[in-house]
Amino acid sequence: MSLNIFWFLPTHGDGHYLGTSESARTVDHSYLQQVAQAADRLGFGGVLIPTGRSCEDSWLVAASLIPVTQRLKFLVALRPGIISPTVAARQAATLDRLSGGRALFNLVTGGAPDELAGDGLHLSHAERYEAADEFTRIWRSLLAGETVDFAGKHIQVEGAKLLYPPTQQPHPPLYFGGSSEAAHELAGEQVDLYLTWGEPPAAVAEKLDDVRRRAAKHGRQVRFGIRLHVIVRETNDEAWRAAERLISHLDDETIARAQESFARYDSVGQQRMAALHGGRRDKLEVSPNLWAGVGLTRSGAGTALVGDPDTVAARIREYADLGIDTFVFSGYPHLEEAYRVAELLFPRLDLVRPQAQGAAGLAPVGEIVGNDLLPKTAVVG
Length: 381
Known about the structure:
By secondary structure, the chain is α/β, with parallel strands linked by helices. It has helices at 29-42, 58-65, 85-98, 113-118, 125-143, 181-190, 201-217, 236-246, 252-262, 268-277, 309-320, 334-344, and strands at residues 4-8, 46-48, 73-78, 103-107, 148-151, 156-160, 174-176, 193-197, 223-232, 285-287, 290-291, 304-307, 324-330.
């Protein structure tokens, strides 16, 4: 099975260290363009754009980067309860057409009650999934060209339709991640790709099997993806030193404050992430080469694959053997780490990787030495 490898656009900030402004980057449009163009050139299949009050708007970021990329797909957030499904369908169709079929959508129900309240959403966890179910039915039907009348508990529309269809039919692929029973039921019934955060393989296998069973009840099949950070270096020792360096500016007070904030979330996925490390920095390798240090201060995906290229590639294949075909990676800082991942990992994996325009027939080479070509054995790549 060939693998789809995506990267991440750090619209909530970037830098060399977690939990500090030391060596932080200015994340403006120029920087996001650098990261997106690097991912596009290196052969990543797409980029995930995060959502939330700490992030730039994912739709506007994606729209601004369409003209400066060629093949890159943009995984953009859909927010049930915050936006109308009919408006979201029109926006999705427009983004898909303007990008030439490069739009993907990530259904996000949210897990931080304080943030959701700030956006005017006051539904409970169970109610949010009810609303997400209704939203998704309407959104998918509209993009498939249907005229929709829907009278649900949370959403009611009459005579809704789209005049301009999306490029991808019947609709652009719909991604979704969640760890609760309600999330798995929604995934099995309505989404195209279920995206889990990086837990140990045995735990991931249980989640995927549950989604498969629920999908089978509806006569469906669901694809699977996983969201992970990556710290890959030429040697294992270098990689583990880089992991420790990433959290070297974190103090116990900062960790405790972050964990206290995450404890207020009603997201089952966030609870599972926190349980991996328990707020402790002395037992962060929660599975071979799976490191939970990112989750000490970062909400959402909090684990990283750490090691040399062969080791990390082997761990990726372990997840692929579970049925996962899409990997959404990230690393700090995101510009440099995009190159590390592509140069060190891509040659060791069977990838779905589009050929960059203008690069056909050009082999990667190192710097010319002594006004002559490098010997073939020294060619980089």
